[in-house]
Amino acid sequence: MRLSAIFPSRTIAIYMGKLFLVRTFAIMAALVLVLQALDLLSESGNILAVPGNGDGEVWRYVSLRAPQIISFVLPFSVLLGTILTLITMNQNSEVIALKAGGLSAHQVLAPLLLASAGVAVISFAFNDRITPRATATLNAWQKVDYGPLPIDSGDRSNVWVRDGDDLLQVDLIRGRGAATQLGGVTLYDRTGGSLRSIVRAPRGQRENNAWRIGPGTRFDVASGQVTRFASMVVGNGVTPEQLTLAGVDADSLSFRGLSEAIDDLQKAGRPTKALEGSLWHKLSGPLSAVLMPLLGAVAAFGVARSGKLFVRAIIGMALGFAYFVADNFALAMGNLGAYPPFLAAWAPFLLFLLIGEAVLIRTEE
């Protein structure tokens, strides 16, 4: 199909695309400003309660929280931007003029669909590069109750693993696989639930199927004596994946990082269905921006002076918000294991794509 068949007029396409993008990002800016202010009102007290925190820490919180809010409101902004654009064009009889010029409903929406595809690409890049880093840093900061901000180096910290009756705690973990290095190792040697000894060592490394730590100390609970040792083998059977993947937060990882984490978890024999659903949703979520012009298109067609324009706008918003409800429900069911990961991420998108097309074809008829 030739491009001229989809976009008969370059001028009209640019005009509609610009109108849509300006309204979308204006609505997004307004929503982000309001939600950020409300969120800051609830958290600023906790931030300033820490001795030494001031305006700098408040603005640091804003810089870390804003990417999460932007990711949340962007699809809503595309929906509202679509409806506002189409309502304006309908009121000014521009849609009627386009239809009278021989354009089909799909050709009228084509500039908006193309612009929303660009928004989807921007959304994916933003959610993949900026939001996960901000989320990981903010989560680490909140774990210390907004105290001194920990450095986000990509290393794992404060990891606990159970080895039979024993508990293994590691302050810092660097690397992956056989190259994994441990820092600040503490082994709680237990028998039948009773603590026998506490072994501490500043570092450790992989050796065969276990971990060699040392030099360190061993505190015997029964005698109360502390002995030193040059090296010791602990955690026989504890794999690097159990340490480096003790807790995987999908929101704190990029698409590639989450994919690698899922591969490692599968090799370790751990369940990954919920994470697989989140991985697919990192694609379907941004792509939902392309659905919004279809769902909001009901506001574009119909005579404005018929008095039903407001009702059409409400229907468009209802369809858009119904999609977000279905999307969150399907993702939650996927996390519970009721839906397969692919179905949990893509079923709402495909369902509402068909609904949008059906509404558009019915409107055109």
TrEMBL record:
Regions crossing the membrane: 20-38, 69-87, 108-126, 283-302, 309-326, 338-361
GO cellular component, one term: ATP-binding cassette (ABC) transporter complex
Keywords: Cell membrane, Membrane, Transmembrane, Transmembrane helix
Domain of life: Bacteria
Record carries keyword Transmembrane helix: yes
UniProt main location, coarse: membrane
Compartments where located: Cell membrane
InterPro entries, alphabetized: LptG, LptG/LptF_permease
GO biological process entries: lipopolysaccharide transport; transmembrane transport
Sections of the chain in a coiled coil: none
Record's protein name: LPS export ABC transporter permease LptG
Protein species of origin: Sphingomonas carotinifaciens
